[in-house]
Amino acid sequence: MNPDQLTFGFLQYVVFLLSTTCHEAGHALVALRGGDSTAFEGGQVSLNPLPHIRREPFGMVVMPLLGIATGSGLIGWASAPYDPLWSQRHPKRAAWMALAGPATNFLIAILAALAMRIGLAAGIFTRGATSTAHIVGAVSAGVPDGVATILSVFFSLNILLGCFNLLPFPPLDGYNVLGLFTSEAGALKLQEWRIRFRSFAIIGLILGWRLLDSIYFPLLRNAIRIFGLSLGI
Asked: Which pTM does this prediction carry?
């Protein structure tokens, strides 16, 4: 890897680390509000990455940095603990907890898009291609260039995280979110199926990766248009 690729890879990792921390803190906060203090007691109702890293050091540090160093791409994961008995007693609350993580990612993406849009309107950023982030966004020279690049990575990566985690396959959050569209009994049944067939979780992850591109890129292009971050895309 050349120095520019290494620098951009490190930037992606920092954005991944902060975004994943927010994702898990979102899960933990909604669980706490719903009556489960398990993650709170573990220190995960926090935007400090350290409690989340301590829980998943391999997924939040080792694998992402290894992927960047080898050029194979950034891949990682994290998790927030919860009380299974609480989840069974309150399956709808557990479904809201599941939704909170991806919703946090989409909120971050919206905030980054608004910041880029304000920068464009104020003349701080100019329109240009940031091909390494796979989007057309706000880029200019010097310090504004760096800020625009950081915002574009927050924008694109959080849309990616939100999309992937909302796919309705176990063990992804989207499977548990399905409980919001059923009765309490139906939401509980979904939990039981997830536990019964957890040995097939890898199949859900494979299906998620196979479908991700067909959902992520159209959503990214539409988001770019909606926020006016490009011309003619």
From this structure: 0.90
